[in-house]
Each structure stands twice: as structure tokens, then as C-alpha cells.
Write a structure and sequence with these properties.
By secondary structure, the chain is mainly alpha-helical. The protein has a domain of 168 residues. Helices cover 60% and strands 5% of the residues. Strands 1-2 form a two-stranded antiparallel sheet. A hairpin with a 2-residue loop joins strand 3 and strand 4. The chain is globular.
């Protein structure tokens, strides 16, 4: 869904709510991370070039990982038959789990090139990710995507003549607002490097599984897997296990 649709001197301008929310998420994250502890690593980085470079890596990780994650996890058959659609991300079709994989690869690459702690970067980045997630979920709501079961009550969303539960708003609250509060609460407490990132994996997975069970319906092109599980649940379970493992493993390190 576009915010407006203009044609000026032959140039077609039609920004989408989806793109606007992504932009808000990235800009907000940039402003916060500039004031983060990463500045201790970049003491001579007066022009924020290293932070700009880090966020560029993360931006690529989110876009490339999110897009190809969606293609691989949710609709590979369609994109094999319609290759030209792969780059049309403004139409929607981004996977959060794919984006996480992309961001992890981006942070590993960056930390190795700059020779700084991966876990330090991961903690600083993941504690602000809920801002981007929340913005993205609001974009999903405006785009009438990822809707829940049929529902005609408060804040219901009508699509194709049918009213649905606004599950993206539930995710905005859980994965955006509440997750941000949790991570930044523990961030201010004593913790080992990497534990904030681990908590992000744990709580995001828990919240996503709750939403998948109680609010969302499965993607129509996939349906339920193994008779009762959605793709979102299947992708969230490894996040939960990995998060728990690293939280306790890192907690035992000196």
C-alpha cells in the first residue's frame, strides 16, 4: 500500500508505508547507536565513519537476508517461476528470521575486518532492534499483511471484504515495545558480552511463538506443517535454543 502516488515530469513516485517504517527504524537505530558504548571502540572516529560503515553492513544484512529468507522459507516455488519479482521488495515479502541471519553474517564480517568483539557489537545492535521490528510491524499493519484470524472487533482490519484480527499490532507491542524494555533493563545490569544478544533471541522467539499460536494464521502458500506448526514457529525454535545455550555458556566465561 502506497502513501501517495505521483507522476512528476515522467518520474513515478509512490512511497509505501512498508518502506517508510523501515526508514524510520533505521534512522532511529542510527541515532541511538551513535550514543552507544561502541564509541569506546571508535574513540578516534570523530566523523562516525566506522559506525556508518557498521550500519551499512547491517542494512545490507537486513535487506538481503530478509528478502532471500522469505524466498527460501516461504515461497521459493513462486520466485523460481517469477525471477523478476525477487528484487521488488517494495511489494512486501521479507522474513524476519532471514533478516536475523543476514545481520549476524554482517556483524561477523564487520567484526573480523575491524578486529573488534562480535559480541560487543551484537549486544549494542540487538538492544535497539526492537525499534526497527516495531516500526516494521506497524508497516505490516498499514499494508494489511500478516493478519490474524477472522475478527470484527476493535482495530480489526478489513481485506477483500473480510475483517481480520490485527496481529501485527500485537507483535508491535510484544516484539517492539516490551522486548525493547526487557533488553535495555538487562543492558543496564551487570552482564557478560553477548548475553544481551542471547536474551534478544530468547524473548523474540517466545513472543513470536505466542503470536503464531494464538493470533496469526499460517501463510496460505504453506499452511500448517506437521499438522499444527507454522513456519514462524519452526524458525523461532532454533532461535530459542541457541539463545538459551549462549546465555548460559557466556555467563560461565570469565
Amino acid at each position: 500500500m502506497t502513501i501517495f502516488d505521483l507522476n512528476i515530469f515522467g518520474i513515478h513516485i509512490a512511497p509505501s508505508y512498508y518502506g517508510l517504517m523501515y526508514a524510520i527504524g533505521f534512522i532511529s537505530g542510527y541515532l541511538i547507536i551513535k550514543k552507544s558504548r561502541l564509541q569506546d571502540y571508535f574513540k578516534n572516529d570523530k566523523e562516525n565513519k566506522r559506525i556508518d560503515s557498521l550500519l551499512f553492513y547491517i542494512f545490507l544484512g537486513v535487506i538481503i537476508g530478509g528478502r532471500f529468507g522469505y524466498i527460501l522459507f516461504y515461497d521459493i516455488g513462486y520466485y523460481i517461476e517469477n525471477i523478476s519479482e525477487i528484487l521488488k521488495i517494495w511489494k512486501g515479502g521479507m522474513s524476519f528470521h532471514g533478516g536475523v541471519i543476514g545481520v549476524i553474517i554482517a556483524m561477523i564480517t564487520y567484526s573480523r575486518r575491524k578486529k573488534i568483539s562480535f559480541f560487543e557489537i551484537a549486544d549494542e545492535v540487538t538492544r535497539i532492534l526492537p525499534i526497527g521490528i516495531g516500526a516494521g510491524r506497524f508497516g505490516n499493519y498499514l499494508n494489511k499483511e500478516l493478519l490474524g484470524k477472522e475478527y470484527s472487533g476493535f482495530l480489526s482490519v478489513e481485506k477483500d471484504g473480510i475483517s481480520y484480527f490485527p496481529s501485527p499490532l500485537v507483535e508491535l507491542i510484544l516484539e517492539g515495545i516490551i522486548l525493547y524494555i526487557i533488553l535495555n533493563y538487562f543492558y543496564k545490569k551487570k552482564h557478560k558480552k553477548g548475553q544481551i544478544a542471547s536474551l534478544f533471541l530468547i524473548f523474540y522467539a517466545i513472543f513470536r511463538i505466542i503470536v503464531e499460536i494464538f493470533f496469526r494464521t499460517p501463510d496460505p502458500q504453506i499452511g500448517y506443517l506437521f499438522g499444527f506448526m507454522t513456519m514462524g514457529i519452526i524458525l523461532s525454535l532454533p532461535m530459542l535454543i541457541i539463545g538459551i545455550f549462549f546465555y548460559y555458556y557466556l555467563g560461565k566465561t570469565k
